[in-house]
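To whoever picks this up:

The parser on our side crashed when reading a file containing two proteins. I've narrowed it down to the boundary between the first structure block and the second sequence. Both blocks are reproduced below exactly, byte for byte. First block:
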Amino acid sequence: MTVFHAAVSGTLVVLALLMTLGFSLQRRWWAGVGRWPHHALYLLTCLGTLACAALAGGAGRAWWPFVTLLALLLGMSRTRPGRPGHWRLAVLVAAAWAGVACWVW
């Protein structure tokens, strides 16, 4: 496994944790307590996506899908948490991330 593959795998794991915690926050299972971990996982996902773009570019692979994913991730701040637009964009980001990961693998 290359460093690039490890970065993609690690970021996917962090994204899965982010989505799981986000779902539990939607269900109010961790209301109030899970907000900071959710933000920390979001930051790690953004940094992991940026690292994947840099590693892909350095390895001669397609880097632009990761920049597009990062733009989608950064667009999350434009939606209001707890509203349908927020979780819909989150599901779109997760699906796009999974698709990009399969494509570049």
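<<boundary where parser fails>>
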Amino acid sequence: MQKVRQAQAEQQRAAQNTASAQASAQESQNNLRAAQAEERRAAERVSSAQAEHRKNNQPQQSQTTGENINILA
């Protein structure tokens, strides 16, 4: 009977360890997903900043009205 109780206690400890490991794995998965989402947001901010930088640093093209003025009169 003693061996049965010891085996049952061991089984209970193993079940608790399994549950703990599963909870830890779930938390790790949640942390991974959060980190990946943060990485995506950061990449989007970089892309947006690069586009803004390109827009602000394009050479300004002179605008003409399309009229020609003859100054050799």
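After patching the parser it read the second block fine. The longest helix spans residues 2-56. The chain has a mean pLDDT of 90.
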